[in-house]
Amino acid sequence: MYGKAFAPEYQGALTSLSVNSSLTEVLTVGRAQLAAAERAGQPGEAARSGLAVAEAHRRLGQIREADLAWKASYRAARDAGDTAAMAWALWSGGTLARQRGAFALARRLLGLAAELGERGGDVVVRGYSLAGLAETGRIQGDYEAVGRLHEQLLAEARRRGEARHTVWALEGIAQMHRNTGSYDTAYALFEEAARTAARADDRRGHAWALRGLADVVSVRDGDTGRALALLSEAEETCRAMDLAAALAYNHKMRGNVLYRAGRHAEARKWYEQALAEFRAIAEPRGEALSRLGLTKSLAHLGRDRAETAAELTALARTMARIGLRHAEEMVRRAQEEFGLTEAGRAPVAQEAVR
C-alpha cells in the first residue's frame, strides 16, 4: 500500500513543499531559505535549501544555474560535515550531467552519491542514486546491464511503500519492454505506473506514464486519436508544474504519433517545436531525437535525398558522440527506411523515452 507521494529532495525548511509544487514556487522559496541560512551561518540548512534550488533550475532547463547550485550545496554540506546532504548534492549533479548528455560524468557522480548515501545511512538518496545509474544505462540502450538493477529498485521501492520511486521504476522497465517490442507488457507496466501515480497524487510521474501509454497505443494499436488525447492530458500537468523537459518530450512524442499516422506536415511542426524547446534547455539527447524525427518528416515531404542522407550521417555521429547506442540504431533504421544504406539489417525499436 502506498501513501501520498513526497519529494525527498525538498529538505530542511522546505519539507512542506509538495511533489506537485510548481518549479517557480520551489525556486522562489528555496532561494529565500538559502539566503536566510547563509545569513544565519547554517551550512547544513544552506546545503538542503540549495539542493531544492539546484533541482528547480535543472528541471526548468537552466543548466548553468543548476550547475552552480548543486556545487554550492555540496560545499555547504561538506562544511557542515553532513554526509547524506553531500550525497544528495552529488545526486543532483549526476542527474544534471545525464540531462546534458555527459554520461561518464553522470555515472561517476551518481556512483559517489550512492556510496555516500550508504555511508551516511540515507537509504533514499542511495536508492535515488542507484536509480540514476540505472536510468543512465537504460537511456544509452544498455538494457542487459541495468535491467536487473531496475527490478531490484522496484522491489525496494515497493517494500518501502514509496510511490514516487515505484512509478519511476515501473516506467523505466516499461520503456525497455517497449523498445524491445514487448508492447503488451510495456502497456501493462505504464498503466500500473499511471494508476499508482494517480493514487499517490504524483502528477509528474502520472504525466510521464501517460506519455508512455500514448507511445504504446500509437505504435501497437495505431490509435492516433487516443494517443493524442493522452498527450494533451499529460501536457496540462507539464504546463501547470513548469516541467520544461517533460513538455518538450511530450511534444516530440506528439510528432512521433503523427509521423506514424502518415501526417508528416503536422509531425514536422511538432518536431520543430520540440527541437526549439530542447535547445532552449540545452538537452542534447532530446535535441538529437527531435532532429531525427524532423529529418524523416522532411524526407517524406520531398526534401532532397542528398540532404536527407547528409543529415542522417551527421545524426549518427552525434548519437555516437553522446553515447546513445539505442538511438544510433534508430538512425540506421531511418537510413534503411529511405534506402540510404545496405538492406537486410534487422529492424529495431524506434524510441527511447526520457
From TrEMBL:
- The coiled-coil regions, if any, are none
- SUPFAM superfamilies found in the cross-reference section: TPR-like
The record's section on InterPro entries has: TPR-like_helical_dom_sf
PANTHER family named among the record's database cross-references: HTH-TYPE TRANSCRIPTIONAL REGULATOR RV0890C-RELATED, REGULATOR-RELATED
Q: What is this protein called?
A: Tetratricopeptide repeat protein
| Organism of origin | Streptomyces kebangsaanensis
